[in-house]
Design goal:
The complex is a heterodimer of chains A (489) and B (135). Chain A has 489 residues and is α/β, with parallel strands linked by helices. In chain A, helix 1 crosses helix 3, helix 2 packs across helix 3 and helix 6 packs parallel to helix 7. The longest helix of chain A is centred in the middle third of the chain and has 20 residues. The two termini of chain A are 26 Å apart. Chain B has 135 residues and is of the alpha+beta class. Chain B has 2 domains: 66 residues, no CATH class; 34 residues, no CATH class. Chain B has 4 helices and 7 strands, in the order E-E-E-E-H-H-E-H-E-E-H. Chain B is elongated. Chain B starts with a strand and ends with a helix. The C terminus of chain B is likely disordered. Classes of the chains: A alpha/beta (489), B alpha+beta (135). Chains A and B meet through strand 3, helix 3, helix 13, helix 17 and helix 18 of A and helix 3 of B.
Amino acid sequence: MLEFKTSAGNTYAWIDDIGIFIPTNPILSAIIRETCNQNQTSKIDEIEKLKKDFDEKEVEYYYELAKKYKKIRTTLKEKLEYATNRQFNEPILIKSILKNGIAQLILDVTEDCNFRCSYCIFSGNYVHYRSHSKRYMSFDVAKKAIDYYFSLIKAGKRYNPLRQPKITFYGGEPLLNFKLIKECIEYIDETYKCYKISNYLTTNGSLLDIEKAEWLIKHNCHILVSICGPKEEHDRLRVYRNGKGTFEDIMKNIKPIMANYPSNVGSIAIYDFKSDLFKLEEFFNRPEVPALILASPVTELEGCKYFEQFSETDILLFNKQMQRAQNYYVNNFNDREKNTRASLFDIIFGRGFVSTVTGPESLLLNDPLIPYSGSCIPGQKLFVDVDGNLHICERVNRNFSIGNVAEGLNFEKIGKILYNYNQRLDKCSTCNMIKMCERCFATLFEGKDIVYTSKSCINEELNNIRWLANVFTFAETNPKIVENEFGGE
Amino acid sequence: MYFRLNPECHFIKGEVYGAIFDLIDEKIYPLDLEETKIITSCEDNEPICDGKDFLKTLKDLHIGNIYNNKIYIRKLYFGSPSLFSFEGSLSQLQRAYLEINNSCDRNCWFCGYNGIKSVSAGPNLTPRADPILTP
């Protein structure tokens, strides 16, 4: 049980083995804590224990309420313990991947980039990740990857007939290999006509002229451009090889696209400890800027040199700014203009609040293949590098290949990765927020090794308590946001 | 003071009346007009005005509680509401129907109107909707 208190003074508890938030009080908390620890606590024992501190009738009342919740408690921890020490064979893995996986094929069409942004995981500042190179994917590799992906989609139809193929072109700067992207999309359109396919392209925008954009839009490709805010913010983070800022070139390219196809292009923002969040908020509300789809801080991974530039003062000031921004968002929420598109603060705070409240699954056990953490099963996504090797995700370093396009997924490798991974999750069985955990391979892999959760999850629970208090403080005054967002209630 | 239904108790409002569904105890509590108004107001986070005895009864049934401040209740759902919106997420069969025959001893005009044709009928049974469907 994880307890937290809002600024109005209300207390809540998150009960992980049900997946429920309940308003609580000292009596109910005490009873739930007792019943969590001991399965066979009688009402008489409980009343006897608590009647010194609380009213007897109240204890009796909350004992019955706790008993009601106990009816739907899953035996989560016991089942998960069992799964942790299991080795999974090929048929189990194939079934799981066909049922829940193959959500996306990501093609790393080139490792080359015309930018040299120091925060990029391929900048050389991250010791376990590749650096930029002149390597490009060939059509032969891409075709094999596409055919293999569609063979899985076809085989998985019996489990999920609604699944729609999604193909993402990734890099480097993918538009440096636009010829391959065109070939791939034309091949897919010709060969797999019966599928409703979504294509995605993440680009730095410098090579995105109107002709390319029109061709991509015509072929059902969603374009996401990396933009980090107004000129001074963007140019601090995103530069050419010679160090020159890239803002003006990108905005020049985007202008005609936004004039003609504003709904077909979006932006992705990155911020760090020196970013001015309020300037970013204003910038992404401008109509000439593509709607913001995603905003995230620079990823801090083990062995990363990027963060050496920030002093403790920088971090402290940024955290204060973040708190100010959150207060501003919460206090002005009802007065803000009703935009059809999300602002930066909507994405950082609003969407974050909503996903915290509505994201964790209730009454369901985690997948037994990965009982703890928020990791997907390797193979749920297929990331293909320029040589045709299959990887778990674009965010995971390349030391954990799970097959190749010629031979397909290697289930022996996947089984070994899962077994080793589950063994390292040594803190999870005592964790109070298993269902809320967002840690995954991307954050738990260190080089060729997997880090123990007892080492990496320090302060996690404390941070989560603070965050939940913020989220519920907001939800108490704006309950409709969560409900409207998902059409509930 | 505020009254809110517990997370596992969903208030469903019809055109006039409402009902409370307790998902754990699997009970349905139909409400009259006055009770529906009271619960509507409470679930909108309005302070308690009327129906204190009624709300006390609901509290005693463990389907709601009284609070000093406005409170946020995240209702209990099976699974995760945010995952419902994922495009193409796994479909689940909630119910299966077995058609044990395709004949009927009645001949209602609307039956089969949308194209369900009968294949066979016993000696005393009328094939479904044949007169309507046959041009």
